[in-house]
Amino acid sequence: MKMAQENRYPIGITGQQWGEAEKALWLTKQTIKRSYQAEVAAKIAPLAEHFQVEQYGALSYHPSEYPLFVVKSRQWSEDKPTVLVTGGVHGYETSGVQGAIRFLETKAKAYEDRFNILVAPCVSPWGYETINRWNPNALDPNRSFYRDSPAEESAALMAYIADLGIDITVHIDLHETTDTDNSAFRPALAARDAVEHSNWNIPDGFYLVGNTELPAEAFQTAIIESVEKVTHIAPADDVGKLIGVALSQFGVINYATKALGLCIGFSDSIYATTTEVYPDSPKVDDENCILAQVAAITAGLDYILPLS
């Protein structure tokens, strides 16, 4: 019987999980494609004029090149609810990083009186530079937010938040869904884990991922309605799903975020969502994607304002 191996992933043996040799081979194929220092760190530094900029760690892969930053509001008070915005958990998802920075540059000051604002613009700077979903150890930081995490990107952020000793009321994690999810990352995942991952339909438009345990449906609705004024919302596919998951409402699906080790799961926020921008749509450009991320953040905060 002829076995269909034409589409076999170029690393590893079909049916066998990757070991250290395969992961090391994968790493040799990754290259620097853009600059974290020039495109991210250089934009964070001037924010110190209006905010408190702190370095909470550095990636061991190259500590001087990959410092990790958070930006905090100066008017910090235990009487205010705290909002956490995270970007670049998947480093390749550009508008998540640039959207977090743009929010700080243009909108964050207007919310300082009512919120403690805490922004980690780029959780995975190596992933940003190499345009990767994984870190150099072939680990997905957005599946690694749990106790004793093996992904240092995830572990560093969790440790910093834990040291603050605060409750996070709102957590908005900025992401993208790209065509490369099917063409590059899902095939790599299937090969690494020796499991089958059939491709899903890439949603054409913006959508949200909420928490199955705390869906905060009205909060999600408010964000969708605001972002819809900036960019188009992804319709469900032919079977009523987005990325294989049934809709909870228009433009929204829910995941078991803590069980899956997602970033919005670790903060235990009452109001938590993951944004998903579609940058490969012919209907958008880079600026539109950034503005959609900013609109998502501000809509979430505007929803909370009367409740806080």
From TrEMBL:
> What keywords appear on the UniProt entry?
Hydrolase, Metal-binding, Zinc
GO MF term (any one): zinc ion binding
The record's listing under SUPFAM superfamilies reads: Zn-dependent exopeptidases
Cofactor(s) required for function per UniProt: Zn(2+)
> According to its UniProt record, which residues of this chain constitute the active site?
E276
Known InterPro entries for this protein?
Answer: AstE_AspA_cat, Peptidase_M14
Q: Name one Pfam family in it.
A: AstE_AspA_cat
Domain (Peptidase M14) spans: 32-308
Q: Tell me which family the UniProt entry assigns to this protein.
A: Belongs to the peptidase M14 family.
**Name of the protein this chain belongs to:** Peptidase M14 domain-containing protein
